[in-house]
Amino acid sequence: MLTANKLMPQGGGLAPVLLKRAATVELDWDVRQKSRFDATDSQGRQLGVFLPRGTTVRGGDVLVAEDGSLVKVIAAKQPVLVITHCSEHGTLFDLMRAAYHLGNRHVPIELKPDHLKIEPDHVLAGMLRSMHLIVREAEEAFEPEGGAYGAQGHSHGGAPVGPVLHPDAYAAPHPHDRAPDDHGPSHDHAHGHGHSH
């Protein structure tokens, strides 16, 4: 087994030709947020990765093995929930509200200008749909936002993972959270407007 104990964030400082020649390894988010794990690279080599505690590996980072060889990390596709706003019944601001509520629950979130991504969770999906957001299942790479006070040296550290509240905490939204139409807590947002939430 080949040991890798050095990480170069986004391959910084490496010549493009070296990156192009490097072996690759596909890792999902569950593995990439660990500082010690085993993997197999694209050349069939067994890797034992031992990084400083608290290190999070991102897609595009480069592992340096003990023999000096480079292994570029690819964020593997994995099941995720993609959250978008309903243009017929809401605005992009609804995504900001969703990010706030998810953040309060310490849920790792990938933030994009027009959507959010989280790991599958049927309780959270129900909460988001009750907020009139569109939630769909997908298989995509997952790169959640890093913590603002991450301990590691590069700027995209792991998102903090904290306690998950009891499902009762995901009750119907506060009346002020609803659109000014007559949508109530029992409204399932199946409007027949071309998409299912």
UniProtKB/TrEMBL annotation:
Q: Which domain of life is it from?
A: Bacteria
Q: Matching InterPro entries, A to Z?
A: UreE, UreE_C_dom, UreE_N, UreE_N_sf
Residue ranges under compositional bias (Gly residues)?
147-160
The subcellular localization recorded is:
Cytoplasm
Identify the main location: cytoplasm
Disordered: where is this region?
Answer: 146-197
Please indicate if the UniProt record lists NADP as a keyword. no
Q: Where is the UreE urease accessory N-terminal domain?
A: 7-71
What residue spans carry the Basic and acidic residues bias annotation?
A: 174-191
Which keywords fit this entry according to its UniProt record? Chaperone, Cytoplasm, Nickel
Cross-referenced Pfam families: UreE_C, UreE_N
Keyword Magnesium among record annotations = no
Family of the protein in this entry: Belongs to the UreE family.
What task does this protein carry out? Answer: Involved in urease metallocenter assembly. Binds nickel. Probably functions as a nickel donor during metallocenter assembly.
- What's the protein name? Urease accessory protein UreE
Q: Give me the gene this protein comes from.
A: ureE
